[in-house]
Amino acid sequence: MFKDKLEKLKSKSIAAIAAAGSTQTLESLRVNLLGRKGELTQLLKSIGTLATAERPEAGKLANETRQAIEADLSRRQAELSTAERAEQLSSESLDITLPGRKPQVGHGHLLTQVINDIVRIFAGLGYKIAEGLEAELDWYNFEALNMPPDHPARSLQDTFYLKKNKDDVLLRTHTSPVQIRIMEEQSPPLYIICPGRVYRRDVADPSHSPMFHQVEGLVVDKGITFADLRGTLESFVHQMFGADRRVRLRPHFFAFTEPSAEVDVSCIVCGGNGCRVCGGNGWLEILGCGMVDPNVFNNVGYDPETHVGFAFGMGVERIAMLKYGINDIRSFFENDIRFLEQF
Ligand code: DAH
Question: Which domain CATH number covers 172?
């Protein structure tokens, strides 16, 4: 009786194991047979109810059967898991011959590049970088630069006032106020370059923008002459626009320099013969400069009898437009990627 039951369970189990199609089915089969309440376990327990004489034989048979089933289970388990792994590998495989996604690499805005170029050139001449404030006091933007409240030169720089009272606060119209702040804080020798944003109440058109960039330069040292100023600017022009560019200084007026000049570079398009870019005269204006006015030294507490120096200021957009042939200043700020990515 017991032997029959055992035989039946064995052949049923062997068939079921062979038919199991996945490791999951096989596992529940194993629990159903060998688990605590499994069929084989129950059968083994029933040996205790047999007659004493039958027990040794039954026990031996039962153990053999359990070992046979266990061996069969583990063989089938190995088969199935190998097959499942192979199936997983082939279904999840990557096609490494597909082209990858190219990362989009950006770059600095053209104005940032030009500012960096200018700063690098002057750093090479031993200048240090300074920073000022974009919201300035009237004193620094105008008065200390020799432009008292009624000075006509003020009207050339239409101004955004933030507060209208005795200590007027305004958006700086140029980077020149940095000259005053530096001289108040430091003593000569000074070799300073200062890039930054400036603001004027101008309506945007191809050559005007209410916000633009300047780079200011200031030198104060012993024995500085106008020739040092010219040599410095020539060195800058040659590094920025090329060694064959010529430089011309024209007398001009700035309240904070005396004498003052505007600086022209021989046209980078026609080389000086005259073309549409230079308006036919062969020269392009690039910056203003001059020897620091004694009144400015007085305003910062430097003795004008012992101090001498020069200053210059240039528009970054203007330099960039000349160098790269851009004809509308608004292109810098419209954020059109088709424009920006060209540079
Ligand atoms: N601040 C002047 C402007 O915005 C430019 C300038 C001219 C700066 C002469 C200077 C200078 O330092 O010496 O128009």
Answer: 3.30.930.10
